[in-house]
Design a protein that fits this description.
- The protein is of the alpha+beta class.
- The chain has three helices and seven strands.
- It comes from Novosphingobium album (ex Hu et al. 2023).
- This is Nuclear transport factor 2 family protein.
Length: about 140
Amino acid sequence: MANSDAALTWTDRDAVTGKFARKVLDYGDCLMRIARQAREGGLDKSDWDELAAMLDTDKFRRTGHDMGVMDWDIYRNLLTMWATSSDFRAEFHRISQAGNHVYMELTEYNHPRGGSETIVRTCTAYEFDEADRLVHLGVYLQGE
C-alpha cells in the first residue's frame, strides 16, 4: 500500500493531517456556520453554496440511518429545516482516513425548539471522487 493510501486515525481534531479528513472537518465547520446563521436570522438556498462547492452536487447521495437515499436538493432542504428549527452541538471522538474514504465518530446533541433533546452516537462515512469532491455521505447512529 502506498503511503498516501495508508489508513490514518486521529483522536485530536487539531492534529488531523489527512487531506480528506481535513475536508470532512471543513465540511462540518461550514455546516455549523450556516446553522448558526440560520438561528440568527434566516436562511435561503444560496446560503448553502459554500457547502455545495465541496461536493459534486450531481453525483452526491446521502444515505441516512434509515437507509433512505437523498440527492443534494433533498438533503439541502432537510438541512434547511434542521438548521432553522433545532439547536445542535457535537462532541468529536475520532476521525479515520483510508484512501478517499473518511469515517468520523461524534456524539450529537440535537434540541428541536419546543421539543426534547436527543443524543446519539454517530459514525458517518464520507466518500470523495477523483476531483476531491464529496459524492457520498453514509450516516450510522446509535441512540435510544
